[in-house]
Amino acid sequence: MNEIELNVFLFADVAMTSKVAVVTGSNKGIGLAIVRALCKQFEGDVYLTARDLGRGEEAVKILTSEGLKPKFQQLDITDVSSITSAAAFFRETYGGVDILVNNAGIAFKPATPFSIQAEVTLKTNFFATRDVLTHFMPLIKSGGRVVNVSSFMGSLALNLCSEEFQQRFRSEDITEDELVGLMERFVEKTKTGEHKKDGWPELVYGVSKTGLTTLSMILARRLSKERPHDNVANAPFAPLGAGPGWVRTDMAGDKAPKSPDEGAVIPVYLALLPPGATEPHGCFVTEKGDSAVVKSFTLKLGLRELS
């Protein structure tokens, strides 16, 4: 069962034209549902992206048959040349990006050898998403939004890490380079079977999302310094309880009680926060509304819903 967490950044608002939203990994599941909702609610072009051209175009046909008008851009987040090509397209065509939803991600079945799970999962969920952020963050227009889809499995994984690792992931002074080193260390230790002895849990997907959540906060702190007139927010959301729910996808399974469209509610809500919004800001969101905001990032490992 995969729970979902969202990390969102807000930028100061300036009047602009030719608005555009980009959703990674959106040819199916929650990603497709996010594109569907944005097509209905966002006043601008909405791009469905996928690494496979055929699957992406087929997904566009599905939405077109529903009377929507999504656009398509091929994007394989594990291929840096694909990322740079897509970034160049949006820079040249739109002068940047207004909304970026990093939804692309993978999870393995338990039968897959652990070291293979670790290498491939972190390559996609952490390292590739980091590459997307590296190339797209400079393109985010004033008033833009960046939403990173993560997972509460990251909180669980971090709680099972050694005290040393927990301290570093929670630290306000952890750097991006240090974080990358920790993620690389986990992958290398799985190859020799020494990851548990080294202080890591048996949760590959969770570790990848621990990395993504920590990266989001590092970027939030950096943006506060580099773009002091912009607002930066970090908002995770839990699909169980008050959140939109455990969602039926290929990755999470077909026994989940919620549909992808229901799972898309919170990421779309965060992506479409109104102009001038100052919250969520450096905090977590488990459902729409102020009552669900957990303002301390240090609570990310024991997230609770506020009543």
TrEMBL record:
**Sorted alphabetically, which keywords does the UniProt record give?**
NADP, Oxidoreductase
List the CDD domains: carb_red_PTCR-like_SDR_c
Q: Broadest EC class?
A: oxidoreductase
What's a single GO MF annotation on this record? carbonyl reductase (NADPH) activity
One Pfam family here? adh_short
> According to the UniProt entry, what is the EC number of this protein?
1.1.1.184
Q: Which family does it belong to?
A: Belongs to the short-chain dehydrogenases/reductases (SDR) family.
Q: What is the official name of this protein in its record?
A: carbonyl reductase (NADPH)
Q: Which organism is it from?
A: Neogobius melanostomus (round goby)
